[in-house]
Specification:
The complex is a heterodimer of chains A (about 300) and B (about 240). Chain A is α/β, with parallel strands linked by helices. Chain A contains ten helices and 14 strands. In chain A, strand 1 and strand 2 form a beta hairpin. In chain A, helix 2 packs across helix 3, helix 2 runs parallel beside helix 4 and helix 3 packs across helix 4. The longest helix of chain A has 16 residues. Chain B has about 240 residues and is mainly alpha-helical. Chain B has one domain. Chain B has eleven helices and no strands. In chain B, helix 2 packs antiparallel against helix 3, helix 7 runs antiparallel to helix 10 and helix 7 runs parallel beside helix 11. Chain B is globular, with a radius of gyration of 18 Å. The chains are: A alpha/beta (about 300), B mainly alpha (about 240). At the A-B interface, helix 1, strand 6 and helix 2 of A face helix 1 and helix 5 of B.
C-alpha cells in the first residue's frame, strides 16, 4: 500500500501559476489524471516524480518528502512523456542499464522486457524503434525494480490502437496487483477505459475527483449546445421545445439555423431524430457547438 | 562515489556523437604538424616548447576539455534523457563524480597522450619538454573537465561559454591583459610544466604553490557545485 499525498500544493513559473493549491491523494489502483493540454498535469507529475519542487505545499510518498530524496525511487517507476532516451543503446542495453542503477541485473531486465513484450526487438538500437516500441521500453525501464508506484505522463500519445490496448491491459494488471498507477491524459475516453479513479485538473486547479461515472455525469449533464439545420426549422423548434430535454431554442436568421440548448443529453439525442421523423422534417445539419474539451472542462470547473 | 553504469552510458554518449570527431581531429592535427616541423627544421627545443605551449596546451587541451566536460552531461540535460539517471536511488553527487571521472579520462586520453607523442616527435623529450607539457596537459584536463562539466549543468549554452572561456579568455585576454593570466587553467598547469622543464625553457605567470591551490580549489568547487545543481535540476517547464 503506497500512497502519494499532495497537500495544498502550488507551483508557479515566474508569473504563471501552473498548479494552484491542489490537494489530492493517489492510492493503489489505476488513477487517471485528466485535463486539457497545458492544465498542469505534467507539472503535477513532475512534482510527484521529484523533478520539480512545489512552490508551496508538500508532495509526499508514504509520508516521506519526494523532492531531493533519491531513496523514493526504490518505490517509484517513471515513464516520462519526453521521447529522448539513450538512442544509441539497444532496448536490452537500456533496460539493463536501468536495472543496474537499481542494483539489479540482466535477469530483472529480461523479465521487464518480457512483461512489455519487447523481447523480439530487444537487440535493435532504440533509434530504430517506433513510438509504441519506445513507450514499451520506457515502461520496461520503469518496471525493472518492481516499483509499487508507477507514474506515466501521457503514455498513450502517438500509440496505435493495438499498442494502446496492450499498454492499457498492462496498466490494468499493475493496478489489480495493488500498485499505485497514475497516468495523465487529455482524452476522456482513454481515462474512462482504464482508470477506476479520476482526478481532473483544469487551468492548474483540481476541478473534480471520483470514479468515472461521476465525472461522466458531470460532463454529460451540462447544457449541450447544438447547431441544427433542417427542412423546416420553425416546426422542428416548436416540436422540440415541448420536451423538457430542451431548455432553449434560438432561430438564427443570419445562419439559417437553430441554436438549441439541451439539458438532458441522453434524452435529447434520442428525441431529435424521432421528432424529425414524426413531423416529416429532414435534418440537414446537426453539429454540437461546444464539444471542445476545453468547454467540457471549463464546465466542470464551474460545477 | 563512482557508478560503473553511469560511466558506461557517459562514455558511449560522449564517443558516439558526431561532436566526438573533434576529439580525434585535433590530436591528429598536432601529430601531423609535429612531424612536419621536425622534418623541416629538425629537433629544436624552443620550437618544441612553442608548439606544445601554443597549440597543445593553449588550444587543444581546453577544446577537448569543452567537448568532454560539457558533452558528459549537457546533451542529456538538454534532451531530458537524464531523467533515467535521476529517477534512480543513486546519489546525485555520485552521478556528477562519475561523469567527472569520465570527462577527465577522455580529456587526458585525447590531449595528454598526443602531447607526449608530439613532444617526443619534436625533440625527443629534450630538456624534459615532452614530459613537462604532458604533465601540464594531465593536470589541466582535470580542472577543465570539472569547470566545463559544471557549465554543462548550469547552462544550455555550455559549449559556447566553454569556447569563449577557452579561446577568448585564456588566449586573447591572456595575451593582452597580464592579470587575466592569473585566472587561467593554462597558466596554472604551466607552473607545473615550468618546474619539470629544464633551463627555463617553459615559463608561467603563476607561482607553483598558488597554481596548485587554484587548480585543486577550482576542481573541487566546480564539482561540488555541479552536484548541488543536479540535486535541484528541474526537468519540467514545458507547460
Amino acid at each position: 500500500m503506497t500512497t502519494i499525498d499532495i497537500d495544498h500544493t502550488s507551483r508557479w513559473f515566474g508569473n504563471v501559476v501552473a498548479v494552484n493549491d491542489v490537494t489530492m491523494t493517489i492510492g493503489p489502483g489505476v488513477t487517471g489524471l485528466l485535463g486539457p493540454n497545458g492544465a498542469g498535469k505534467s507539472t503535477l507529475i513532475n512534482m510527484m516524480g521529484g523533478f520539480l519542487a512545489p512552490s508551496t505545499g508538500t508532495v509526499t510518498l508514504d509520508g516521506e518528502q519526494i523532492w531531493r530524496n533519491e531513496s523514493v525511487y526504490k518505490k517509484i517507476g517513471i515513464v516520462p512523456e519526453r521521447e529522448a532516451m539513450y538512442d544509441f543503446l539497444t532496448g536490452r542495453e537500456f533496460v539493463v542499464a536501468n536495472a543496474e542503477l537499481h542494483g539489479l541485473g540482466a535477469r530483472e531486465a529480461g523479465q521487464a522486457l518480457a512483461t512489455v513484450e519487447m523481447e523480439y526487438a530487444q537487440d535493435r538500437k532504440i533509434q530504430t524503434y517506433s513510438k509504441g516500441m519506445r513507450q514499451r521500453v520506457k515502461m520496461a525501464s520503469a518496471l525493472v525494480h518492481n516499483p509499487s508506484v508507477l507514474l506515466l505522463d501521457e503514455p498513450f500519445n502517438g500509440m496505435d490502437p493495438r499498442q494502446r490496448m496492450q499498454l492499457m491491459n498492462l496498466l490494468r494488471r499493475m493496478g489489480a496487483e495493488g500498485r499505485t498507477v497514475l497516468f495523465s491524459s487529455h482524452i476522456l475516453e482513454e481515462v474512462e477505459q482504464l482508470a477506476s479513479h479520476i482526478e481532473v485538473i483544469v487551468a492548474g486547479r483540481h476541478a473534480a475527483s471520483g470514479d468515472f461515472r461521476k465525472i461522466r455525469r458531470l460532463m454529460t449533464d451540462r447544457p449541450h449546445r447544438y447547431l441544427i439545420r433542417s427542412s423546416d426549422d420553425r416546426a422542428l423548434a416548436a416540436a422540440l421545445i415541448a420536451d423538457p430535454s430542451t431548455a432553449g431554442i434560438e432561430v438564427d436568421l443570419k445562419e439559417g439555423a437553430l441554436r438549441i440548448q439541451a439539458v438532458d443529453f441522453g434524452r435529447f439525442t434520442t428525441l431529435l431524430p424521432q421528432v424529425a421523423q414524426a413531423n416529416g422534417i429532414r435534418l440537414l445539419t446537426v453539429s454540437p457547438s461546444d464539444e471542445s474539451l476545453e468547454s467540457v472542462f471549463s464546465y466542470l470547473v464551474a460545477a | 562515489m563512482y557508478n560503473p553504469t553511469v560511466a558506461r552510458l557517459t562514455y558511449r554518449a560522449l564517443l558516439g556523437r558526431r561532436r566526438a570527431a573533434i576529439l580525434f581531429v585535433l590530436p591528429a592535427l598536432l601529430i601531423v604538424i609535429s612531424v612536419a616541423v621536425r622534418s623541416f627544421s629538425g629537433a629544436d627545443d624552443q620550437v618544441a616548447a612553442d608548439l606544445l605551449g601554443s597549440f597543445a596546451l593553449a588550444t587543444m587541451v581546453p577544446l577537448i576539455g569543452v567537448i568532454a566536460g560539457t558533452g558528459a552531461i549537457g546533451p542529456e540535460i538538454d534532451d531530458g534523457s537524464i531523467v533515467y539517471l535521476l529517477a534512480k536511488p543513486v546519489k546525485r553527487s555520485t552521478i556528477i563524480f562519475t561523469k567527472l571521472i569520465v570527462a577527465i579520462a577522455v580529456t587526458m586520453a585525447f590531449s595528454a597522450i598526443p602531447t607526449l607523442i608530439a613532444g617526443f616527435i619534436l625533440n625527443g623529450n629534450g630538456q624534459q619538454i615532452a614530459i613537462a607539457y604532458t604533465v601540464a596537459a594531465l593536470v589541466a584536463s582535470i580542472a577543465y573537465a570539472a569547470v566545463f562539466l559544471l557549465l554543462g549543468t548550469v547552462t544550455r549554452h555550455a559549449v559556447v561559454f566553454g569556447l569563449v572561456y577557452a579561446l577568448v579568455w585564456e588566449s586573447l585576454f591572456g595575451n593582452l591583459v597580464p592579470g587575466a593570466r592569473t585566472l587561467s587553467v593554462q597558466q596554472w598547469s604551466l607552473a607545473l610544466a615550468q618546474k619539470i622543464g629544464e633551463n627555463d625553457v617553459i615559463s608561467s605567470d603563476v607561482g607553483l604553490p598558488l597554481a596548485v591551490v587554484l587548480l585543486v580549489g577550482v576542481t573541487v568547487a566546480a564539482t561540488w557545485y555541479a552536484g548541488q545543481k543536479l540535486r535541484t535540476l528541474k526537468l519540467a517547464g514545458e507547460e
